[in-house]
Amino acid sequence: MKILVAVKRVIDYNVQVRVKEDGTGVVTDNVKMSTNPPDDNAIEEAVKIKEAGKAKEVVAVTIGEDKAQETVRKALAVGADKGIHVKVDGIIEPLAVSKILQKIVEKEKPDLVFMGKQAIDDDCNQTGQMLAALLNWPQATFASKIEVKDKSLEVTREVDEGLETIETNIPSIVTCDLRLNEPRYASLPNIMKAKKKPLEQINASDLGVDTKPRIEQIKVEEPPKRKAGIKVANVAELVQKLKNEAKVI
Amino acid sequence: MSVLLIAEHNNKEVKPFTYNAISAASQIDQDLHVLVIGHSCEAVVKSISEVPNVKKVIHVDDATYENYLPENFASVVIKNSENFSHIVCSANTFGKNLMPRVAALLDTSQVSDIVKVISADTFLRPIYAGNAFATVKSTDVKKCITIRPTSFDPAPTSGGSAEIVKAEKGEASTLTKFIKREEVKSDRPELGTARVVISGGRGMGSGDNFKLITAIADKLNAAIGASRAAVDAGYITNDHQVGQTGKVVVPDLYIAVGISGAIQHLAGMKESKIIVAINKDGEAPIFSIADYGLEADLFEALPQFLEELNKLNTIQK
Ligand SMILES: Cc1cc2nc3c(=O)[nH]c(=O)nc-3n(C[C@H](O)[C@H](O)[C@H](O)COP(=O)(O)OP(=O)(O)OC[C@H]3O[C@@H](n4cnc5c(N)ncnc54)[C@H](O)[C@@H]3O)c2cc1C
Ligand SMILES: Nc1ncnc2c1ncn2[C@@H]1O[C@H](COP(=O)(O)O)[C@@H](O)[C@H]1O
Fold this sequence. Notes:
The structure holds two protein chains of two kinds. By secondary structure, chain A is an alpha/beta fold.
């Protein structure tokens, strides 16, 4: 079995994101970038399945500018066998990403595609479901547990009501929640070894996919600020304020 | 222009957020039709038909639709989408799962999680865990949109009598099989719609200690929330998680106990009207957005809080 994992390079989740003054986006210059957090879980799960002898190969793919290669290198350092970087400059929407991934799937012929449930920059939560639609594959979204069976997967999904279990035929798309596993760190020797692993580069334009955005970003603004609150001295004062000032109890 | 809204329900009842989505959808266009896909869900169809904003209810019924599998639902939506300019749904796990599948089949770039309708093609949506707001304009002919329900008031639920029509089924898919749903039943108000929410974080220290929270929730008729760390530690089930990758809540009163206030948590609660933070670390970031901060050990503060509440005899429910 072969597993393809899609990894995106995003602003690190610890960074306090700032909006650019001209309203065209957020500040990315000199800002720490990392792998989108649930994509680390996706890689980890694929590598674990390989280590359990249930998969032969793990391929990591990213779509983006040249620097996105760092994200693939990191995936290689934690156990992926091969990397693919599809080069695109500028904003790329989930629909275009899913069309590119469709082409990569047709080329690589994986049995499973693992992705994150949501990119923490655009917060779209779309790409996996879109790819599943384009390929006419089943989708197991928001996965917190994956069990690989003979010709199917049993997946536990995190839904608003609690947990849901479904069985999907293989091939299948899975989008991962952070609770799926505990991603490992790359050791220094493995980071060195990853430099020798194959990393294929493809231009998005060579895949025949139209990546032009369909959504115009008109402006990006700061969210409204909350007015500063106060500290209360004790519980009695808190309750008194909630009752008489805020009038919420 | 006409809008097609996909209703979220459990075959017996309409999920409350469907009413919020209905009011957002009718801001896009008054000609609002609602698609109810399910199994033996006549009661749901009837309830939706009574919403004054709704012009027509389209009902598709089959045993294969009992468990809302998106592989089956998407094909029904596509079959019924022809005359509509917009297809909309709530941005909760139901809508997040389904809508992108529909959008890709229609070759549309979806606009996720809108918090405001600016015009029929322009919307406001949070990005970067709510650290920025983007105004975006969709250029697709058919638009697929998910709505952040807590940003819109629910539509009135009675007084209307929309026409009900039965529609064609989609192709049945065998790609996915539903196995089970572990639903956490409770008599408390739902997290998303509760007037008061009290949430516990890693500071609670154990699942057992959540009984301090439960006692106050009982008193205030509040829903119980949690940080991701509290869920990860197994103190409480995942359906309680508030934040960027959990639920968004906008109660009148949000009480954060033993929660540090990471941006991913704030993303799910910072629009609350009044925020209270109880934390023993005076530097915790949660204090920077709290209207009332109490720097205290929660194991002392929560029992005192309950005692003070018990002294009041006029708690608003
Ligand atoms: C991609 C991504 C998505 C995420 N999504 C979410 C999300 O949706 N929701 C979410 O909540 N988090 C989310 N997180 C996690 C988030 O970054 C934080 O790790 C998490 O919110 C921390 O939870 P916490 O505040 O309970 O724990 P901590 O940060 O450990 O804080 C515990 C607090 O309790 C206080 N405390 C301890 N003991 C006591 C006591 N006896 N009395 C009073 N106070 C006490 C401490 O002072 C501390 O401030 C996400 C992270 C990532 C990377
Ligand atoms: N540019 C990209 N390159 C690789 N994977 C991506 C890219 N964009 C999105 N993905 C994948 O799709 C998931 C969901 O992203 P989104 O739909 O943007 O929230 C991410 O967690 C990634 O696994």
